[in-house]
Amino acid sequence: MDSRQLKAFVAVFEERNITVAARRLHLSQPALSGTIKSLEDLLGTQLFMRQARGVAVTEDARILYPQARRILSQTDSMTHQFRHGSHTSRIAIGVGADIAGPDIVAFVHAARQAVPALFVSLLEGCDGDARLATEDERCEDELFLTLSVDPYVLAIPEGIGADAALPWIVCPNHPTHQRLLPFYGAAANMPAAHAGSLRLALELTAARVGICVAPESLARSQAGVEIRPMDGLEMSRRVGLCYAVQSLDKPAVAMIVERFREPSGALV
Questions:
Q1: pLDDT digits (tens, 9 = 90+) for 141-200
Q2: What tens digit of pLDDT does each residue of 194-206 get?
Q3: Domains and CATH numbers, the chain
Q4: Across the strands, what pairs with 94?
Q5: What are phi and psi for residue 67, nearest 5 degrees?
């Protein structure tokens, strides 16, 4: 398998039309069809099905597409570095409001190991070439690569006795709120406070306003808070990398995704 075959595959996959793809690659239609046929023979599977207008993609083609984009991106990166003498890669990463500090540190450390001389820009919210966020925050057109699974725990003010009856601090606009209502019970109607994020709920807990349910990673990094397991409720969240397929065109993104796809790629 060579880059010529992968470029042909990507063009046909994206255009869904042999004629348009051939024009894009400055090839004749027979030459492009022959390249696709040789790739299918090599892989032992059909990638496209001809239709009256254009082609339809098979499930195997959908699996191959992001991998092909990633390989081509890495090849372009190596070519650019050696031709232009540039050895610095840049990436902008958006960070969700409720991602724990230790997870951010672990991610940046692993990313810098995966990409030599990486220049990282950390941004708040949804900006960036990719985003460190929870699966609930994944946009419709994004892929999600799980990096860690974070259980929810009960967070109480430090030094408060286990038998103390404290009101709830709730996050009405958070995706977990509806799932937690049965756990809160009638007390949800009389909360001690509302918080705009889980991080802010923990700040209110540390201020002894009440108690809250929060991801363990966040709760452990909040001063003035102790954690307890939640009897009767098993809930967790997935923290990971949100990225669009097109972002794999950026070599740094492709290399980081490849790094975290490895068996040892979880955040530690």
A1: 889 999 999 999 999 999 887 666 789 999 999 988 998 998 888 888 899 999 999 999
A2: 999 999 999 999 9
A3: 3-84 (1.10.10.10), 89-148+238-261 (3.40.190.10), 149-236 (3.40.190.10)
A4: 123, 131
A5: -70, -40
